[in-house]
Design a protein that fits this description.
single chain, Alpha-D-Glucose-1,6-Bisphosphate, Chain A, domain 3, 4 domains, seven-stranded mixed sheet, 36% helix, A-D-PHexomutase_a/b/a-I/II/III
């Protein structure tokens, strides 16, 4: 670590530090020297005496993780390196070991990106309102005054601890799959960390697993590791049909999100997965609170109430939801982006645990997945429609003005703009990372939804 008087290269932190994490192009926006500063700042802001790190399969991830550790060690902290892991495996380590943590990944972003997802002990989030702003402020100060001084008590140490087996064993204690009927499941890891974790978690279960793209390759040679984009699950859909499989699962690059395809090769909405898992969690804990973000289907809140639970609507984003999980004592939370949060997993998100719930629900009865999830798919949805705009605030204001005062319509600005009508509703919100407006529209039938979607897009793209 540089001495306090040494110059520190200026980094454009405005494009690097996001609302929930750090993410940008390597080396254009950040590099190992920046990662080292992040390590020092993380220790100073969190007061960590010991911390845990992990990284995904991207070519730049090991070096960035090591640099972060150097910065932390120079501040007197001890670092436990878990090495290759999924993001939820890092959360497991943070929770089980009771340590703050840092995961090096850019999730579903293209190969040249990388980032850091940080948490306090017990997988508690570090976002803009919970430490990330302070970390950024320290880095900005160091670009003017020089790097931080080494810890007066001397450097910390670095040790290794592979948590893969412990993580897999823990997940299997949370969902009982021993009595399910045999299932054939196609899994598309997208050359991401699902290829590392799925074999360990699924080992010994009554599953015939057909692997796709399990080779760890951060260049993503087959398709982007972003199953939210329909083009990236086409291979999985075709393979499910070709294999006559019971279902398909697709994981994103850091394997913290899981997407589901039924036996017909049709995507199962993450809102439907949220509703399905919610019913299972409420069966174990009657009357509990379940969170859902404001772009999930209206069906989610309906199902939670029907199952005897209390639905609580939240903003989009993992740091907000994790904080709300802790505040409300919620048993479970789901986002339409396929992030699923569990009280039994330190309120953190784990797509793998959601996948185990889907497998248990399907394997515990004789019907198909499409039949099982039909009661959760009640409305016609647009999916997320993104529009690149030069003036997001202006376009959002135009939509607000167009819908304000309409009979039977209410407006909510909790996160972007949510417009609710008796038979149609939508949310329009700016991206936290890109010059985009994101539209999610839903209605009681396909025709009404299409008309609503097109009406809003005409205003957004005017």
């Amino acid at each position: 670590m540089a001495a306090p008087t040494d110059p520190v290269p200026r980094t454009d932190l405005s494009g690097l530090v996001k609302a929930y994490d750090v993410r940008g192009l390597v080396p254009d926006q950040w590099d190992e020297s920046t990662a080292e500063l992040f390590g020092a700042a993380f220790v100073q802001v969190t007061g960590a005496r010991t911390l845990v790190t992990g990284h995904d399969m991207r070519a730049t991830s090991p070096g960035l993780a090591r640099a972060f550790a150097r910065g932390a060690v120079a501040q007197g902290a001890d670092v436990t390196e878990t090495g290759l892991c999924s993001t939820d495996q890092l959360y497991y380590a943070s929770g089980a070991l009771g340590l703050p943590g840092a995961m090096f990944t850019a999730s579903h972003n293209p190969a040249r990106y990388n980032g850091i997802k940080m948490c306090r002990a017990g997988a508690a989030p570090v976002g803009q309102d919970s430490g990330l702003a302070e970390i950024r402020a320290l880095l900005e100060r160091w670009t003017d005054t020089g790097g931080p001084a080494p810890a007066p008590g001397g450097s910390g140490t670095v040790t290794g601890h592979d948590t893969l087996r412990e993580y897999a064993n823990h997940l299997r204690t949370l969902v009982d799959l021993t009595a399910i009927r045999p299932l054939k499941v196609v899994v598309d890891a997208g050359n991401g960390m699902g290829g590392h974790t799925v074999p360990a978690v699924f080992a010994g279960l009554p599953l015939d697993v057909v692997p796709m793209y399990f080779e760890l390759d951060g260049s993503f040679p087959n398709h982007e590791a972003n199953p939210l984009d329909p083009k990236n699950i086409v291979d999985l859909q075709a393979r499910v049909l070709a294999e006559g499989a019971d279902l398909g699962l697709a994981f994103d690059g850091d394997a913290d999100r899981c997407f589901v395809v039924d036996e017909r090769g049709e995507p199962v909405s993450p809102s439907a997965v949220t509703a399905l898992v919610a019913t299972r969690e409420l069966a174990r804990r009657p009357g509990a609170t379940v969170l859902h973000n404001l772009i999930t289907s209206r069906a989610v809140a309906e199902v939670i109430r029907e199952a005897g639970g209390t639905p609580v609507r939240t903003r989009v984003g993992h740091s907000f939801i994790k904080a709300e999980m802790a505040r409300t004592g919620a048993v479970f939370g789901g986002e339409h982006s396929a992030h699923y949060y569990f009280a039994d997993f330190w309120n953190a998100d784990t797509g793998m645990l959601a996948a185990l719930h889907v497998l248990a629900a399907l394997g515990g009865q004789d019907g198909t997945l499409s039949a099982l999830t039909r009661r959760f798919e009640r409305y016609a949805a647009s999916g997320e429609v993104n529009s690149t705009v030069g003036d997001a605030a202006g376009r959002l204001a135009a939509v607000r003005e167009a819908w304000s005062g309409r009979p039977g319509v209410t407006l909510d600005e909790t996160d972007g703009l949510t417009v609710n009508g008796p038979d149609r509703w939508f949310n329009l919100r700016p991206s936290n990372t890109e010059p985009l407006l994101r539209l999610n529209a839903e209605a009681r039938d396909e025709r009404t939804m299409a008309r609503l979607r097109d009406d809003v897009l005409a205003l957004v793209r005017a």
